[in-house]
Amino acid sequence: MNRNSVAALAAGALFGTGLAMSGMTDARRVLGFLDVFGAFDPTLALVLGGAVLTTLLLFRPVLRRGRPLFVDAFHLPTRRDIDARLLGGAALFGIGWGLAGYCPGPALAGLGIGAVESLWFVPAMFAGFLLHRLLTRS
Fold first, then answer.
1. Confidence bin at 138 (pLDDT 50/70/90)
2. Domain extent at residue 131
3. Could you give the number of structural domains in the chain?
4. Any transmembrane segments, and where (predicted)?
5. Minimal CA–CA distance to 118: which of 26, 44, 45?
6. Is 24 in contact with 50 (CB distance < 8 Å)?
């Protein structure tokens, strides 16, 4: 295993641990956050706020390093346009998130802690990846 793979594994493990510790692997918490007129649960807002604050504080200093620790250059997005694919993908993501209470990160972390919902969500997610690949092949 090379240095990049070890770094990616460590970053993923840290991210998954954070999701599990904050309760974000529990789809009911996410659905509670989305239920603003019912049993509202603000936990997700606190987790998102922590992520935004960390990014605001560290994004620029990290970019000033000139390059990441384990690769030759940063790979940042260059496109700034908003097109139908972006809007459609965002809408489908939001609909799926609202129906299931899961998105890919927490679903995969949920597998690690044995969350039952992940057992049906993750295969469906990969089926969606495969369907997208088949439909967008040129």
1. low
2. 3-136
3. 1
4. 43-63, 84-102, 108-131
5. 26
6. no
Paired tokens of 11: 């970053």
DSSP secondary structure letters along 84-113: HHHHHHHHHHHHHHHHHS--HHHHHHHHHH
Alpha-carbon distances, residue 59 vs 6, 13, 29, 32, 56 (angstroms): 22, 21, 28, 30, 6
The token pair at 5 is: 């793979």
pLDDT tens digits for 91-112? Answer: 988 898 888 888 888 888 888 8
Distance CA 82, CA 42 (A): 30
How is residue 2 annotated by DSSP?
-
Let me know if 105 is exposed, middle or buried by CB neighbors in 10 A (0-12, 13-18, 19+).
middle
SS3 77: coil
Query: Residue 103: how many CB atoms within 10 A of its CB?
Result: 17
**How many angstroms separate the CA atoms of 51 and 56, rounded?**
9
- Measured between alpha carbons, how far is 100 from 28 in angstroms, rounded to an integer? 9
Q: What percent of the chain has pLDDT over 70?
A: 99
